[in-house]
Write a structure and sequence with these properties.
By secondary structure, this protein is mainly alpha-helical. It has helices spanning 5-16, 19-45, 52-63, 67-89, 100-126, 129-137, 142-157, 159-172, 184-195, 198-227. Helix 2 (19-45) runs antiparallel to helix 3 and helix 8 (159-172) packs antiparallel against helix 10.
């Protein structure tokens, strides 16, 4: 067996066409998950009545089960639920018209929400309580203190962990191929099967994942320097 280097380049170009979908499956869940995670983190920190235990259960379940299971539960369970509701309430909604990608995005968003909630919560808790008291002393409301003082510092401290989550969900997007979504790994599998050159195709896919990861890490490093400039007494 001999490695076909020219084919690696050909496979890379073909697999590159799946990059936009992979980025969609990575960043949309992270944005939605951040909003979910922020709400869950605040509910757990302030022990919001009626929500606290639900938030704890949600985080525990999602973090205690694999992402592939979340995708399967949403992919098979959500259509069943919607079909049942549709028949009961005489909706004209057709579940078959919903793209598979939507189910994957929902599953990944719920997964991201649980993981991000822990990162946000730990970041908020790490900010000294005196910061909040100082905000109250100058007449700020709880909302103003949280948005202007606590959250900026919490997120700045959490950038390394947030970077890990971004890279992790870039790789987790490959699971979508199990439900026939043709992202990078799925496209690599198709290219490999069509040409019977599996090693070359997956080398190309690996290089693409690696390249995107390097870009994410460089961007995160730049953001980290800017966000934590106050710790160095100036703007970097």
């Amino acid at each position: 067996m001999q490695l076909d280097f020219p084919f690696i380049w050909e496979a890379f170009k073909e697999i590159l066409t799946a990059l936009p979908l992979t980025l969609l499956l990575t960043f949309v869940p992270l944005v939605v998950g951040f909003l979910i995670g922020l709400g869950v983190a605040l509910a757990r920190i302030y022990r919001t009545p009626g929500v606290y235990h639900v938030a704890n259960g949600y985080v525990s379940f999602v973090r205690g089960t694999p992402i592939v299971m979340h995708i399967m539960l949403i992919y098979f369970g959500l259509p069943l639920l919607l079909d049942t509701l549709s028949k009961r309430y005489d909706w004209t909604f057709n579940i078959n018209s919903v793209p598979i990608t939507i189910f994957v995005l929902i599953a990944l968003s719920l997964s991201a929400g649980a993981y991000l909630s822990e990162i946000i919560r730990s970041g908020i808790v790490a900010v000294p309580s005196g910061q909040m008291e100082a905000g109250y002393s100058v007449g700020m409301t709880k909302f103003q203190v949280m948005t202007r003082i606590i959250l900026p510092q919490a997120l700045a401290q959490s950038i390394p962990n947030l970077t890990n989550i971004v890279v992790g969900f870039l790789q987790a997007s490959s699971i979508a191929f199990l439900v026939s979504v043709k992202e990078i790994t799925g496209t690599a599998q198709i290219v490999a099967s069509s040409n019977l050159k599996f090693l070359e195709a997956f080398i190309a896919a690996g290089l693409l994942y690696w390249g995107v990861t390097i870009i994410i890490e460089l961007a995160a490093s730049l953001i980290d320097r800017k966000a934590t400039a106050y710790n160095r007494g100036g703007i970097g």
